[in-house]
């Protein structure tokens, strides 16, 4: 008697993989340096909800096949990934870097890093604080993406392959942060949930810092 489980698991894995491919296709790296980065805002605005929907397949997979889902969701994301070059090895177009658009974007990203620090300070003084309005105000999804892409335009194509991954990680963490910090009316935020919120803020702070290193 042969158990059908291996076959069914293989079929289910293939199904989940197809969902992940479809959900992430909108963020595939572009072929050119200037006009087609992986998260080019000109290809259509992606709302917080749409981004969350594109992550739904990964969430489902994490519940049922956690090991494979972790590889799909986090494999290669962020600084330290094989795809992310060392900032000191990045090729930067100094003329574009000095442009008003990029300098304004750099100011914006520094502000996002500071906002993450401020939110942690708020939670340190009041563990029940609702930081949702500040997340939506300080981490305006469209503005964050636009600023990150503006900086990306000053980098060479090989470097962009890595920085695009950092951008995707940042946008996903902002979306997850807003969900994680929410509390039901009348229900206190537990220490576990507080810790999860702070971990997201720590990760965002580091990701913004990692991204800024490419423009220093």
Please report the number of helical segments. Answer: 10
Percentage of residues in DSSP E strands: under 5%
Helical fraction equals 55-70%
- SSE string, helix = H, strand = E? HHHHHHHHHH
Which stretches are poorly predicted, pLDDT < 50 over at least 5 residues?
1-9, 19-46, 55-79
Radius of gyration: 19 Å
Coarse morphology: elongated
The N- and C-terminal alpha carbons lie at a distance of 63 Å
Class from secondary-structure proportions:
mainly alpha
Largest sheet: none
Mean pLDDT value:
75
What is the total tally of β strands?
A: 0
Keywords, please?
216 residues
Summarize the structure.
The chain is mainly α and 216 residues long.
Describe it for me?
This protein has 216 residues and is mainly α. Helices cover 65% and strands 0% of the residues. The chain contains ten helices and no strands. The protein is elongated. Residues 1-9, 19-46 and 55-79 have low confidence and may be disordered.
